[in-house]
Design brief:
Layout: E1 2-11, E2 14-24, H1 40-47, E3 55-60, E4 63-64, H2 69-75, E5 76-79, H3 91-101, H4 106-119, H5 135-146, E6 153-156
Parallel strand pairs: 5-6
Antiparallel strand pairs: 1-2, 1-3, 3-4
């Protein structure tokens, strides 16, 4: 499913990634482990289409990721290490907003986000304001949000930081 060959990324004169290679097959779970500053987040940002690599190839299902960014956005879901939430929204408003942003409106959208909140154990908090939740609860809401479009590849940067 995912192939990375010779991936390189530079920031100014600093090399963040130097000929990074990896493969992840369909249905596999893969974790990047390393010290701070070794390039884990850089890899994730490239896979999510946020950064462009300086060299190397990245393919999902054999197709270059940067050749079709709309397809990439449909295929990949990403939760960054420092995710943003909208504190003045209730959880259900937050989920409705993101469902609508991918074309899930009305009952279809509500059914989808309600089932995801249930899956992550947050259905009882849909009327709570996002700002009132713990970091771990916000993390679970972000997981539900990123699953709205049923991505084939899920990227989680610091996935258990603050998770309760």
């Amino acid at each position: 499913m995912l192939e990375i060959n010779g991936l390189c990324k530079f920031f100014g004169g600093e090399c963040a990634l130097d000929n990074f290679d990896m493969e992840v097959g369909q249905g596999q779970i893969f974790g990047l482990i390393g010290s701070n500053g070794c390039g884990k987040t850089t890899v994730i940002k490239i896979l999510a289409g946020i950064l462009t690599p300086d060299r190397g190839k990245v393919r999902i299902d054999g197709k270059p990721i940067l050749a079709d960014l709309p397809r990439l956005k449909q295929t990949v879901g990403c939760i960054p290490a420092h995710f943003g939430t909208y504190p003045n929204l209730k959880v259900k408003e937050y989920m409705e907003f993101f469902a609508a942003s991918i074309g899930l409106y009305g009952l279809k959208g509500r059914d989808r986000w309600e089932s995801l909140l249930k899956r992550v154990g947050m259905q009882e908090h849909e009327d709570d304001f996002v700002e009132s939740l713990s970091r771990g609860m916000k993390q679970r809401i972000c997981l539900a949000r990123v699953l709205l479009h049923n991505p084939r590849l899920l990227l989680l940067d610091e996935p258990v930081a603050g998770m309760d």
